[in-house]
Design a protein that fits this description.
By secondary structure, this protein is of the alpha+beta class. It contains five helices and seven strands. The strands form three sheets. It has a three-stranded antiparallel sheet with strand order 4-1-5. The protein has a two-stranded antiparallel sheet with strand order 2-3. Helix 3 (102-116) crosses helix 4. The radius of gyration is 17 Å and the shape is globular.
Length: 165
């Protein structure tokens, strides 16, 4: 799209493919409108540098996008609230670091809420890691015990609807 992304990870060999997807799904693809950015990132040490919230088109040079911002969370909430089927693959940010996990956990909570309301959700990728599953599902469905939520398995990809998934 030609926006400045600072030092954020970009797979240059996938840019043309991304353009094609955006063109084909222009009425269906919802992109973040703001981000949490950091001037330093060390995933192994689980450390970030200084943090800022910025609009999507204003990521400073040398900074990395590490999570979606609060406006994006609300944008996704508005889009997802009436969804009947959602397929989600991958986190919104670097959820292994608490300071950059809020967007991912917020969207996971939205997914849990719509699942409890009857939507079918399929969640894959790194989202299946136990810390995120535990936070996303525990306490969300009032009829399933937390242990059932921990056994949720995307290979069986079905929503709760009142019985353990």
């Amino acid at each position: 799209m030609g926006l400045e992304v600072g030092s954020s990870l970009v797979e240059e060999d996938k840019v043309d493919f991304a353009r094609e997807l955006l063109a084909k799904g222009k009425d269906k693809i919802v992109l973040p409108s703001d981000f949490l950015v950091s001037d330093a990132l060390d995933v192994k040490a689980r450390k970030l540098g200084d943090l800022r919230e910025v609009e999507a088109a204003q990521i400073p040079a040398g900074w990395k996008g590490v999570d979606i911002g609060p406006k994006s969370v609300e944008k996704f909430r508005a889009v997802l609230k009436d969804a009947k089927t959602v397929i989600w693959n991958g986190p919104m940010g670097i959820f292994e670091i608490d300071k950059s996990a809020k967007g991912t956990f917020a969207v996971a909570g939205i997914m849990a809420d719509i699942t409890a309301a009857g939507a079918t959700t399929v969640i894959g990728g790194a989202i299946r890691q136990p810390p995120l599953r535990r936070r996303a599902w525990r306490g969300r469905c009032r009829t399933c015990p937390p242990a059932a939520a921990l056994r949720w398995n995307s290979s069986k990809a079905r929503s709760c609807r009142g019985s353990p998934p």
